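Module 6 notes. Inverse folding takes a fixed backbone as the condition and produces residue identities as the prediction. Think of it as a translation problem where the source language is geometry and the target language is the twenty amino acids. Below is one complete input and output pair. Work through it position by position during the lab.
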């Protein structure tokens, strides 16, 4: 039996690139390597220049290469700034719009760099040993503030450990690693060296860095300077037990000269994302509650800096705000998710609301997540990642009161010559409680409504995230191979307000979200072009959990493909990097205090019912849903003689599709598995 299983896994890994013959007009495997998308869009304060990071996949190095490009909105020039295959981030304009600061590993280690536009010159201005982030220019343009990790001191226990003398030239094993921090691991990084983020400043022309904060606390950005340049405001939890207070942080100000700290806010919950108005008279920020629940609304608040009086804006809008930025003297630009789309809106100090754009999209290429970002200037203009159901992100631009312009066409040479699956919206009611569910489905290229097609229902992760009408390489590949693809925002999804998100509180996974998906399957069958004898289910992370849970409740699916699933909630929360926050916000008690609840939510509790063939796909370095979860389900199914295959991705973390070849592998293994069990 073991030899047969191994042969099946190896066979899947060496399949030919395409299962079905297809024309060159369809979206194919190798096309994924040709995709590009814009990200980290940053507009200058005067609104003239837009810098952005251009991302493209490298088929030789199997990674994402990034370059920095500049758009001049006055002259319509579009030119590269850096394009040598290095990494770039934190694009931040100087107050006078003449310099651009960024972080890069151009000389092996990550440092702060500054580029002078008029002189076409750049310089590395830091020489630090850790990676800077969250850059912020001082109002006079003379200094740049940033966050950087500082290694923690050794604990008393570590200092007392005696170590033998290593003879010169001896070949010893690796030194034991002492772990005492509550947060000791991170997906994609492994076991962390004890360190804490601290605030620093550096002269904008280079020089010595100055450390402004100390202590084993949690400090986070973004950072914002007061108008007089004397202090910097940031978010932090400086309590002794900060690691356990996952829903608490306050705003602090640190004096740049004296390093004196002043606590600005002290409301229950989190205050974060501060930004001073151009005149320095007001501070906008976000607040969320400290309730031990999985969904927290980001509320929009503004404070008078001199009096510290504060008030909430748009309190009646049942959506969670993010990324507030001043877009003029008395206007705040902000984004929020609404019914699967990311919206940019303007909110005046008089609390007037103007919806400006809802096509922020395209920065998550593999699946149609509601993602994207924007940047606001002082003259009312905005730039953002603009996408469609058929294109990843380009650069969108909107001057104050004008129509949106699309300034780039990064994929037109590729996707303009492809027949893509058509994206349709669908709404239906869940069989569980008649709750309205919104979703989308993709029909194959050259779709014929008089024919019947196999259906894949693909489930998003989170679960407190959302899908929308956005480009998705995975879904387009399924459609190109002749499948109708259904993806919905089941209960618990964001972008529909607090009540809808909280419908899954304490019930993740459960019969409730299962009913949402099965009702969608039935709604698709009722349309007349879905083959009811060829139904398939797939999903990743929370979607992988829902997939594994579903096959314990129904045998309607021919086959299932679960990526990064949780199978046993007790083992998951006690081994994953998200343990403290997840237990606090998603469970009623510790595992040993309410074992029945954890077990009921676990797909392993239903494994005795499973008859559906299950493909499992997980990164071997996953620390969010560790591969031990996948191994539990695989071995349990094998003990029951259920057809199953486990695909292990070496070196991959929870973002298992981070490398383009792994994205392709996920798609093609699922297609091969489904094809094997298609009737």
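Target side of the pair, the amino acids:
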């Amino acid at each position: 039996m073991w030899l047969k299983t191994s042969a099946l896994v190896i066979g899947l890994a060496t399949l030919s690139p395409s299962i079905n013959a297809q024309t060159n007009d369809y979206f194919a495997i190798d096309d994924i390597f040709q995709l590009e998308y814009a990200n980290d869009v940053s507009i200058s304060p005067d609104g003239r220049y837009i810098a952005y990071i251009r991302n493209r996949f490298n088929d030789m190095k199997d990674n994402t290469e990034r370059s920095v490009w500049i758009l001049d909105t006055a002259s319509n020039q579009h030119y590269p700034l850096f394009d040598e295959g290095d990494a770039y981030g934190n694009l931040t304009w100087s107050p006078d719009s003449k310099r651009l600061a960024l972080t890069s590993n151009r000389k092996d280690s990550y440092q702060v760099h500054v580029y002078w536009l008029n002189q076409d010159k750049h310089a590395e201005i830091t020489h630090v040993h850790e990676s800077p982030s969250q850059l912020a220019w001082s109002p006079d343009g003379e200094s740049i503030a940033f966050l950087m990790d500082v290694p923690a001191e050794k604990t008393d226990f570590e200092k007392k450990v005696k170590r033998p003398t290593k003879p010169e030239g001896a070949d010893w094993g690796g030194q034991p690693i002492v772990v005492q921090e509550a947060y000791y691991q991170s997906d994609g990084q492994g076991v962390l060296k004890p360190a804490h983020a601290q605030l620093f400043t550096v002269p904008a022309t280079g020089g010595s860095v100055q450390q402004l904060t100390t202590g084993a606390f949690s400090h986070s950005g973004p950072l914002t300077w007061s108008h007089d340049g004397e202090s910097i405001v940031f978010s932090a939890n400086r309590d002794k037990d900060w690691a356990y207070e996952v829903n608490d942080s306050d705003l602090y100000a640190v004096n740049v000269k004296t390093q004196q700290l002043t606590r600005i806010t002290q409301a229950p919950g989190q205050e974060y994302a501060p930004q001073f108005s151009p005149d320095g008279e007001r501070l906008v920020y976000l607040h969320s509650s400290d309730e031990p629940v999985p969904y927290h609304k980001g509320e929009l608040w503004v404070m008078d800096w001199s009096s510290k009086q504060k008030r909430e804006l748009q309190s009646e809008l049942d959506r969670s705000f993010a990324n507030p930025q001043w877009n003029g003297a008395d206007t705040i630009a902000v984004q929020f998710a609404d019914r699967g789309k990311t919206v940019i809106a303007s909110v005046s100090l008089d609390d007037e609301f103007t919806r400006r754009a809802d096509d922020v999209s395209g920065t998550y290429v593999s699946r149609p997540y509601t993602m994207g970002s924007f940047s606001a200037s002082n003259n009312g203009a905005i730039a953002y990642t603009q996408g469609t159901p058929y294109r990843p992100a380009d650069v969108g631009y909107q001057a104050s009161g004008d129509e949106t312009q699309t300034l780039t066409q990064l994929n037109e040479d590729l996707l303009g010559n492809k027949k893509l699956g058509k994206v349709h919206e669908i709404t239906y009611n869940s069989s569980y409680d008649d709750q309205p569910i919104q979703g989308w489905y993709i029909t194959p290229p050259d779709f014929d409504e008089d024919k019947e097609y196999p259906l894949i229902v693909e489930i998003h992760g989170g679960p407190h995230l959302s899908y929308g009408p956005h480009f998705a390489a995975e879904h387009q590949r399924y459609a190109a191979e002749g499948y109708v693809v259904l993806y919905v925002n089941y209960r618990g999804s964001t972008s529909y307000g607090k009540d809808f998100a909280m419908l899954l509180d304490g019930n993740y996974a459960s019969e409730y979200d299962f009913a949402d998906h099965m009702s969608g399957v039935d709604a698709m069958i009722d349309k007349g072009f879905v083959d009811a004898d060829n139904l398939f289910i797939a999903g990743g992370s929370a979607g992988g959990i829902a997939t594994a849970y579903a096959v314990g409740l129904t045998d309607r699916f021919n086959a299932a493909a679960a990526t990064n699933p949780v199978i046993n909630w007790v083992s998951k929360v006690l081994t994953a990097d998200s343990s403290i926050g997840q237990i606090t916000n998603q469970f009623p008690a510790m595992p040993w205090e309410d074992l029945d609840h954890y077990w009921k939510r676990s797909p392993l509790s239903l494994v005795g019912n499973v008859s559906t063939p299950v493909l499992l796909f997980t990164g071997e370095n996953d620390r969010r849903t560790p591969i031990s979860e996948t191994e539990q389900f695989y071995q349990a199914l094998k003990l029951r003689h259920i057809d199953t295959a486990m695909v292990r991705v070496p070196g991959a973390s929870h973002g298992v599709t981070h490398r383009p070849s792994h994205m392709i592998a996920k798609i093609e293994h699922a297609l091969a598995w489904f094809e094997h069990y298609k009737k």
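Reference fact for the lab report: The radius of gyration is 26 Å.
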